[in-house]
Design a protein that fits this description.
- The structure holds 2 protein chains of 2 kinds.
- By secondary structure, chain A is mainly alpha-helical.
- Chain A contains 16 helices and 6 strands.
- Chain A is about 40% helix and about 10% strand.
- In chain A, the strands form 2 sheets. Chain A has a 3-stranded antiparallel β-sheet with strand order 4-5-6, covered by helices on one side. A two-stranded antiparallel ribbon of chain A has the order 1-2.
- In chain A, helix 8 (about 120-140) crosses helix 9, helix 8 (about 120-140) packs across helix 13 (about 260-275) and helix 15 crosses helix 16.
- Chain A starts with 5 loop residues before the first helix and ends in a 33-residue tail after the last helix.
- By secondary structure, chain B is of the alpha+beta class.
- Chain B is about 20% helix and about 20% strand.
- In chain B, a hairpin with a 4-residue loop joins strand 4 and strand 5 (about 85).
- Classes of the chains: A mainly alpha, B alpha+beta.
- At the A-B interface, helix 6, helix 9, helix 10, helix 14 and strand 3 of A face strand 1 and strand 3 of B.
Chain lengths: ~400, ~140
Amino acid sequence: MKAVRLLRWSGSVLSPRTRPEFFPIRQSIHLIQCRTQATAAATIDHIEEASDLSPSQPAYIPEDVLTRLPSPPIEASRTSAKLAALHARLSLPSRLPIETLARTLVDQTADHNPKFNNSSFSVLGNDLLAYYTSEYIICQYPRLPLAVVFAAMYAYCGPKALATITREWGVQPAAAPGGEVDPGFLQFMRLPPEPQPERLGPELVSTQSAMVASPNNPNIVEKRRRSISNRTVYDDEFGEPKSSGIEQSIDLSQGVTMEKASANFVRAVIGAVYLHAGRAASKQFYKDHFMSRQLNMASLFQFRTPTKDLSKLCAREGFQPPIARILSETGRLSRHPVFVVGVFSGKEKLGEGAGSSLDEARTRAAVAALKSWYLYSPLDWKLPSDTEEANAKQWVPQMVDQGDVVV
Amino acid sequence: MPVQAIKSVATSRNGVGAFILQCRRLDFHYCDWAGSSRGMNKLLTSSLLPQQVTTKYPATEFRISSRPNKHPILKAYYINGNTKAICVRNLEPAQIIQKAELLLQNSGIKNKKIRGKNVVSQNESVRGIWSPLHGGLKNV
């Protein structure tokens, strides 16, 4: 893979940040200068330029100017203790300037100007997060059913997980965005949290048909059956329908929930680390903060007809049809019997389960057999992104299974 | 549909990958007039504070403010939302630094007695759970 020249690319993404509409031309020139600063991966010219400017800058910006700004000025980020502490707490690379970290904390509902908010970073960060997480899940568990892959993606980098990470990083929201706010706060126009529908069971990766934006024209909303395989094409990385363009424009004027704003912030941090410190640093950051989290993959499965699934799976893989046999039992005629049932394919024992009735034990055994098939993990696995490094080993293609059985 | 999937959130294990210091802010409060603040004032005006506290803990935000006619205190704010405060009246600078480090290195969780409770792990037991129905069966 050809390496992208980061400095050049980031220079075009992070163009010099000026906000001329806030400073009429009659106002003193140094004010314009102090809102002008390139946070593009700091080339030496820019650093010198900034240091040249600093003596001529005023000690503080007058309050009436500050309150007119939608987000804190760039100079404020250099003196913010909160922001410096956050930079150190996340052990961010020193090449990521503090001004950019301040920008990742400004949501697009706080500051509509894309040069001052984190929207461009979060788009990049979202793609990186999805890429790193999906390759990790698929390489480690090549036989996972697609629904479980979606659930695992959601558990590692879904909006809820990112909101939790924001809290665990010690980032707090500002009461309201504005130029006078400390840049160490997360700034966004606040909406109350979305109402959660009352559910009896656990929340599942949805499989029902839904009103979805047409893939050709996002303005047309159509009802589409959402099978699990068509979601890999049309839906986002969590198997949820992509939000249409209309929805987003409404959101922008009203505000966002805390969850969405904090998810965008975490994505923006990843994007900013990638742009300023490069691929290796962003991958290390991802490993430290995301892959270190604990997720029990076996707890994500929910089977409806495990015995039927197992016999279909055995038929597909060319095994002998599964047969359940009692391995041991106790207290059959008592109030609390225990049966241990094994599911066998020929002489091979596929799984084993214990239950208080024969049916329960057989179902548990089938679930254990299915999980042991789906949760197979190769001993020696490698990520495709590892081969992007300069002195990486040759890529050896890995097995990815055809997935779950269709019943 | 053969398999459905349950939505959940992966839990953090602080220190496995990144370590995040749980104390996010530490306040030093002093009084200019009262004698109990003598040690605190000496600490705040000396170079001991940057040398031994603030540069050692860059992940924490430090604030210094006066609290007139009151004893000097240290107040720590933690990521989990808790706060812990220690009154440092009549203490020498070295003792105050000790108290500050106690707060800085604290997890912010309420103090609990450990008293030989069982170790709880998120990982499955390597050896498995003993079952009365497997192996060593006796026929009566």
